[in-house]
C-alpha cells in the first residue's frame, strides 16, 4: 500500500506563507485516547524502522475517524487494525496528519514507519549526535518518529523494544525500567524498557550509543534505593561529578521542602553535544546539552557550575511538576515551566546566597523578558494563540511565569504555598491540567481570592508602577501613593489594573526599620516591613506613628515583575545604597543610581557636552568596595554597572553610541579614580585564594577579584599587564576567561597571542571553544562586526551545532548592543544571512536568532529601516519555515 500521496511534495510557498494559527479558544478534548504504546525501534543510520502498536479507545461520543499526527518525511509502510490491513481508501494523509476512517470503539492499531535519523538536522524526533542516537520529543517531535495523537492530554503507558548493532551501540536506554535484554543475530542486540507511569508522548525518550557511565545512588527518605547514572562520552566522564552531586542535592531538597520523592528505581541523564535547548525532562531519561553537565575547574567557570546545578535540579523537579502532573495543552506550558523555574530558583537560593540568586534572576528577567514584553512578540504567560509552539518556549513563559508563581508564594506565605502544592498533587496527580487548576489549588489552600491576580496569566506587558511619598512631621504620618499602568501590547489594549504585591519598609536615619502602623490601604505588616496589595490604578497607603522622615525601601526582593519609578531623590537612593538592610534593594538602589548617571551622560553626549561623572557616585562606589572583604560577592554585584541593553530600555529611542560612550566613561572613571582601591581588592582576594579557602569563599573571592581586574583593565595599560599575567598563570577557567575578556576588549599586542593560546589549549573541548567564539563576539572593539564575519568562516565554526551558533551569532546580536547595531547595518545583514542558512538545517534555532531584528522600533531612523529591510528580506523567502515566518512577520506587523 502507499499512503504517501501528497506527503513528499515540499510545502508550496502559499502554504508556508500563511501558516495556520492555533487558538486556545478552540481546545477540545481528544476524540480518542491511547492507553498503551508498544514500540519496536530497529535502529539504523539512514533507515530506522518503527513499529507502533497502540491500544486505542474512543473518548468522544460519535467520533468515527482517528486522526494521527505524523511528519510528512516519514514513510508509512503499513497500517493494521486488530491485525487486519486497513484498506487504502480508509486512509487520508494530508500534510502533517493521517486520518483513518471508520474505526471501532476499541482497537489495536499497528503502523510501520521508516525514518532517517542521520538526515534529521532539526534535532527534533530521533537524530544522531556524535555517533549517539537520541530523541527530542517536546513539544511535537514524537510525530517525527511514528504516527500518534501527539498532544499532551493523551497519556499512555509505554513498552519500548530497541534493537541496534551491539558494538556501535552497547548502551540502549528508554523510559522506566529495563525489563529484558539480549543478543540477536548479525551482531545486533536488544533491550526492552517499561515505564509504569502513563505519560504524554513529549516525555518519551530513547538513547543508543557507546557511552561511558558515571554511576551513583540515592536513598529516598522512605528508604527506596535509586540508581543514578550519568552517561557521556568516555573522555568526558571525569567532568560529570558536579552534575551528579547536584542531582543528589536536588533529590534531597525536594523531599525536604516539598515532600516529593523520586518514584522509579533508576534515573538516567545522557549528555549530548547537539541539542536545541538546555535539557529535557523525559521520564527517568533526561537528555542534556553537554553544556549543562560537563564541568571541571579548568574548563568551566564558577557561573557554569551554578548553571549546571540549576538545570540538573530543574529537570529533576519536572518529575513532579511536569511529568506526574502535566499540561493539558501547550498554551499551559507555564504550568510546568514557570513552576519548575521557580522551584529551581528556590533550590539554588538555598544552596548558596538567596540575595545573590535573586539579583541574578532579576538581571536575567530584565535583560531578556522585559525586552520581549516591550516588543512585537509580547505575549501573556499563558498565550492564547501560536503558529509554531517552539516559538513559545520564551523567557515570558519561563521567567515571568516563575515570577507569577513567586508572587503566589509571597501572597500565601511559605506554609500556605506548601499547602497549595499538596492540594495540587492531591487533586491532579496523573492528570493533564491547566494553569487555572493550579491557581484554584493555591486559592483554595491559601484561602485567598486570586481572581484579579490571574490577570498575570492573560495580560501581556510589563506593568509600570510609580511611587510617590510624602511625610507630615506634625502628624507623624507617611503617605505612599502607588499608581500602575499596564502598557498596550500587540493585540491587547486598555488593560485592567493588576494585583501587585509590593514588599516595602520605612527606614529611619540610620537605616533602621521603623515600626509604623498601616492605617489605610490593603496590606499587612510582616517580619521585614510590609506587604502591600496594589490592586487599583491608583491607591494610597497611609502609615501612622512615623516619628522621623523615613526613606521608603520599595519592591524589596523584587516582589513583582514591574518597572518601578519613584520620586526619590539622588540622596534618597544614595542612602538606600549605603543602608538598606534588604540586600536586593541595596543593589537595586545602586543600579538605579548608575542608570540615572549614565542616562544623564547620554544626554550630555547627544548635546555635545563633556562627560563629567558625578563624584558622589564615585564616592558611593568607593564606600561599597570598602566592604569587599566582608561581603565580596554582593560588592561585586553592586559595583557592576547595568548593561547597555538594560539601559537602552529606559530610553524612548536607544542611543546606541551615546550609551556605549557614557557607560564606558563611567567604567574608566571608576577604574582610574579608584585604581588603588581596585588594586587592593585584587591583591587581598588573590592572597586569600593563594592561602587556600573553601570552595564557596573561593568563588566569591574570584568574583570580586575579576571585577577589580575589569576596572583596572578599563583604567589603562597597567591593568592590561595584570590581565596578561593572570591569563598565563590561571589555574581555573574563571580566572583565565576573565583575563581573556579584558584583553579581548583591548587594543593591545597581547590580545592576539592570548586568543591563539586559548584556542590551542582547548581545541579538543567544544564547550570551551564556544567561549572562545563568544568572547570575541561580545568584544567592544570597533572591528568586531568584521571579526564575527571572519569567525563564521573559521574551520571550527558550524551552523549545524546549536551551541556553536549561539556562542557566536546569538552572543553578538543579543549581548553586544554597540557593535551589532553598527550604523553600517553589517551586523543586521550578517544576522539575517545566518537565519536563512540555519533555517535550512534547523528552523527552531533559526527562529530564535530573529529576535534582535524585531526590536527595530526602538532605534533611530537609519537603524530602524536597515533592520526592517532585513526582516522584509526574510519574509519574502519562499520556502521559509513557519518558525521563522511567525517571528519575522509578527516583528513587521
Ligand atoms: N522542557 C525543557 C525544560 O524546560 C526544555 C525543552 C523544550 C527542551 C523543548 C527541548 C525542547 O526543561
Ligand atoms: Zn523546564
TrEMBL record:
InterPro entries: Aminopeptidase_N-like_N, Aminopeptidase_N-like_N_sf, PepN_Ig-like_sf, Peptidase_M1, Peptidase_M1_dom, Peptidase_M1_pepN, Peptidase_M1_pepN_C, Peptidase_M1_pepN_C_sf. The keyword Phosphoprotein does not apply. Residues 1-22 are annotated as: Disordered. The keyword Protease applies. CDD domains: M1_APN (cd09600). Residues 461-566 form the Peptidase M1 alanyl aminopeptidase Ig-like fold domain. Residues 571-893 form the Peptidase M1 alanyl aminopeptidase C-terminal domain. Residues 243-453 form the Peptidase M1 membrane alanine aminopeptidase domain. Its cofactor is Zn(2+). Keywords: Aminopeptidase, Hydrolase, Metal-binding, Metalloprotease, Protease, Zinc. Residues 110-203 form the Aminopeptidase N-like N-terminal domain. GO terms for molecular function: alanyl aminopeptidase activity; metallopeptidase activity; zinc ion binding. Its EC number is 3.4.11.2. It catalyses: Release of an N-terminal amino acid, Xaa-|-Yaa- from a peptide, amide or arylamide. Xaa is preferably Ala, but may be most amino acids including Pro (slow action). When a terminal hydrophobic residue is followed by a prolyl residue, the two may be released as an intact Xaa-Pro dipeptide. It is an enzyme of class 3 (hydrolase). It holds the Pfam family Peptidase_M1. Belongs to the peptidase M1 family. NCBIfam families: pepN_proteo. Aminopeptidase N is involved in the degradation of intracellular peptides generated by protein breakdown during normal growth as well as in response to nutrient starvation. This is Aminopeptidase N.
